[in-house]
Design goal:
CATH topology: Porin
Distance between the termini: 37 Å
Strand order of the largest sheet: 2-3-4-5-6-7-8-9-10-11-12-13-14-15-16-17
Number of strands: 17
Number of domains: 1
Structural class: mainly beta
Largest sheet: 16 strands, antiparallel, barrel
Strand content: over 45%
Order of helices and strands: HHEEEEEEEEEEEEHEEEEE
CATH superfamily: Porin
């Protein structure tokens, strides 16, 4: 495995060095200025369910007039009781598509050890009226080795900004929970092959949880915000002998986290969070997940380190599980990036390595090349190389 990684990394460095000389570009913008642009620009444009917001804001497509506005007293040059301007609904459209090709034993002999297709596509529509947003994300996956085309709505939720004038915002509907240091919803991890915290190598997707939920956010200070919410799952005790059937309820699934940004040191961010999740079956109990992480970024690089603790009943392991995730992004200039990720799961006895290079072809197109390795102490290791072309707007 080591010689493959070295070969891939050496080729990537040479390629990026040549590109840097050819382009002569200035360094990229501060990755922390918009709350973590490094994760946004790693060949994976993010939607509104991203932890740090979209790189592309979408384009306005039309406005809806909601009938006549309310009657108002006459003003200068206006007759009494003349209707005012009708309320408007502004609609924006955004989206992304990723064309991927991968080769290696990750795909298996029956798949020809390779795969081509659309790993993820989404059309994102946001309708805004006053301080309310309605968000709908229609997504699809079309892969050469999967005969079923997955096309459905991935996110459908309403956001109430500045709820009751409190400064808080509330979201309700089918949405990503955004729990953890670098969470994401439908788009997934920043790398082509997800790390353990996104479900890679058989891990529990802590950073990629989504579903019907009610979430909220409140700015506690200039550099910190409190986030939390409630959600529900399909877990039940069905099939357990001698036990009355009981299922998950809204109040049995919850999370809360405190997120910091630029606190004391510019570019420094961090998170402390906890989640309670109902587990059915013989456990029939609420079990914990704890997430602690820190990150630092500037114009040249961004680095993060995250520790995640999970109860054994959530992961199905013999003892309680723990994940360690370390990620580094080097911004070579405003077009080229180098990515290096490492994650480890204690009870799974599994680790992942992701090494990649990303080129911003233009404002809306990225080219991403990646080598991925999964190491298992009790199973066959997985190796694969990947190329991704992304379009986003």
């Amino acid at each position: 495995m080591s010689h493959r990684i070295l070969t891939f990394l050496t080729a990537s460095i040479c390629l990026t060095a040549l590109a840097s000389r050819a382009t002569g570009q200035a360094p990229a913008a501060d990755p922390m200025a918009s709350g973590g642009a490094a994760t946004q620009q790693a060949g994976a444009p993010q939607g509104p369910e991203s932890s740090s917001g979209p790189r592309d804001a979408g384009v306005p497509i039309f406005r809806l007039q909601l009938g006549d506005g309310p009657q108002s007293p006459g003003q200068a040059g206006q007759a009494a009781n003349a209707p005012s301007v009708a309320p408007e609904v502004n609609v924006r459209l955004g989206g992304w598509m990723r064309v991927d090709y991968g080769y290696g034993n990750r795909f298996g002999a029956a798949a020809g050890r390779d795969e081509l297709g659309i790993s993820k596509m989404a059309l994102e529509t946001i309708a805004t009226h006053e301080n309310f947003d309605f968000t709908a994300v229609l997504g699809a996956t079309i892969l050469s080795d999967l005969p079923v085309v997955d096309t459905s709505f991935k996110d459908l939720f309403v956001t109430w900004h500045d709820t009751g004038g409190s400064g808080a915002s509330v979201k309700a509907g089918a949405q990503p929970l955004l729990f953890g240091l670098k969470p994401n919803g439908y788009p997934g991890d920043r790398t082509i092959v997800p790390s353990i915290e996104f479900g890679g190598a058989g891990g529990f997707p802590v950073s990629n949880q989504a579903g019907p939920s009610i979430t909220g956010e409140y700015p506690l200070c200039d550099h910190c915000k409190l986030q939390g919410g409630f959600f529900d799952t399909t877990a039940t005790t069905f099939g357990v002998p001698g036990v009355n059937v009981e299922g998950s309820r809204l109040y049995k699934n919850f999370f809360g986290q405190l997120r910091f940004e630029g606190l004391g040191v510019e570019g420094l961010r961090g998170l402390v969070g906890a989640e309670g999740r109902y587990v059915g079956g013989t456990d029939n109990n609420i079990e914990p997940i704890v997430d602690v992480g820190v990150g630092y970024g500037n114009k040249q690089f961004e680095a993060t380190l995250e520790y995640i603790y999970l109860d054994k009943n959530i992961t199905g392991t013999v003892d309680n599980e723990s994940y360690v995730v370390a990620e580094v992004t080097a911004f070579l200039n405003d077009r080229w990036q180098l990515l290096a990720d490492y994650s480890f799961a204690d009870q799974l006895d599994a680790s992942t390595v992701r090494i990649g290079v990303v080129n911003q072809v233009n404002k809306h197109v990225d080219l991403h090349v990646e080598f991925a390795h999964d190491d298992f102490d009790t199973g066959t290791d997985l190796d694969s190389g990947h190329v991704r072309l992304s379009f986003h707007f």
